[in-house]
């Protein structure tokens, strides 16, 4: 196997997933077709993000979304691209997007067996200053092929068949799990293909970084406050942790996945359910973190066990290195 043989082993994301799906003949390539449409959306958003400043794509769209947030032009554009790509794939029946108040029920002629929940553009507050942003998605398989109902998408995260994100940063990285570990792909712009660059990602068992918006410290509950205090002033003589907070969940989670540590968006007095949305932020990132050997906890339970009641429901989230999440779970157990 000569040194440069790997150069011709161009493992694109499509080939990778086809290999994976060949272990599941029953999928008949439907999942591969669905994923290819998600990948198309990511390539488009990557290109739009890279030229946003030049193409007058930064700034506000002049609308607000159901979250009460002012929508950015890229929020709206990305949302439209993903909705159209997913519907045209002919493999979806329900779509939930951060940017749409109601779920989208795909017309019968284009209906497939998957429900997709997604955050078309995560980290919007970082768009105008060029800091890394991303897209997050989760995929459920519909149980029966009856008329799709909203309940079909209000499933616990552990039922997802796949989850992933694409980070638009110094390079365009797509991280994906189909339930058998986590793999990272990097877009080669000269080929327009995502190439396998990070096979079988495992999050370090313990990390030296904590990632939280310290600006909310006055509203934290006791367990969170104690945990952050321990990060800064360890009692056991270990060195203090470093604080790294980018403010785009995709970027903070990507760093946590590769370097280890813990990302937290806790509940606080102002927002008792925290800020991050269960279906298209908490679940996909928790799915990936568990598949990489880490943990994801809500302050009360395993994040993937949560059963959402509403499509834009929020939850506190603590996710990352196995041991670091254990530490915060112990503090919440004391607080019970
Ligand atoms: P979005 O841009 O999709 O609305 O998500 C923003 C989220 C998430 O990306 C990030 O972790 C969090 O908002 C940051 O919130 P704070 O600015 O309150 O720290
Ligand atoms: Mn938003
Ligand atoms: Mn988001
Ligand atoms: Mn968003």
TrEMBL record:
<keyword id="KW-0460">Magnesium</keyword>
<dbReference type="GO" id="GO:0015979">
    <property type="term" value="P:photosynthesis"/>
</dbReference>
<dbReference type="GO" id="GO:0006002">
    <property type="term" value="P:fructose 6-phosphate metabolic process"/>
</dbReference>
<feature type="domain" description="Fructose-1-6-bisphosphatase class 1 C-terminal">
    <location>
        <begin position="203"/>
        <end position="332"/>
    </location>
</feature>
<dbReference type="GO" id="GO:0005986">
    <property type="term" value="P:sucrose biosynthetic process"/>
</dbReference>
<protein>
    <recommendedName>
        <fullName>Fructose-1,6-bisphosphatase, cytosolic</fullName>
        <ecNumber>3.1.3.11</ecNumber>
    </recommendedName>
</protein>
<dbReference type="GO" id="GO:0046872">
    <property type="term" value="F:metal ion binding"/>
</dbReference>
<dbReference type="GO" id="GO:0006094">
    <property type="term" value="P:gluconeogenesis"/>
</dbReference>
<feature type="domain" description="Fructose-1-6-bisphosphatase class I N-terminal">
    <location>
        <begin position="11"/>
        <end position="199"/>
    </location>
</feature>
<dbReference type="InterPro" id="IPR033391">
    <property type="entry name" value="FBPase_N"/>
</dbReference>
<dbReference type="GO" id="GO:0005829">
    <property type="term" value="C:cytosol"/>
</dbReference>
<dbReference type="GO" id="GO:0042132">
    <property type="term" value="F:fructose 1,6-bisphosphate 1-phosphatase activity"/>
</dbReference>
<dbReference type="GO" id="GO:0030388">
    <property type="term" value="P:fructose 1,6-bisphosphate metabolic process"/>
</dbReference>
<comment type="similarity">
    <text>Belongs to the FBPase class 1 family.</text>
</comment>
<dbReference type="Pfam" id="PF00316">
    <property type="entry name" value="FBPase"/>
</dbReference>
<dbReference type="InterPro" id="IPR000146">
    <property type="entry name" value="FBPase_class-1"/>
</dbReference>
<dbReference type="Pfam" id="PF18913">
    <property type="entry name" value="FBPase_C"/>
</dbReference>
<keyword id="KW-0119">Carbohydrate metabolism</keyword>
<keyword id="KW-0963">Cytoplasm</keyword>
<dbReference type="InterPro" id="IPR020548">
    <property type="entry name" value="Fructose_bisphosphatase_AS"/>
</dbReference>
<dbReference type="InterPro" id="IPR028343">
    <property type="entry name" value="FBPtase"/>
</dbReference>
<dbReference type="GO" id="GO:0006000">
    <property type="term" value="P:fructose metabolic process"/>
</dbReference>
<keyword id="KW-0479">Metal-binding</keyword>
<keyword id="KW-0378">Hydrolase</keyword>
<dbReference type="InterPro" id="IPR044015">
    <property type="entry name" value="FBPase_C_dom"/>
</dbReference>
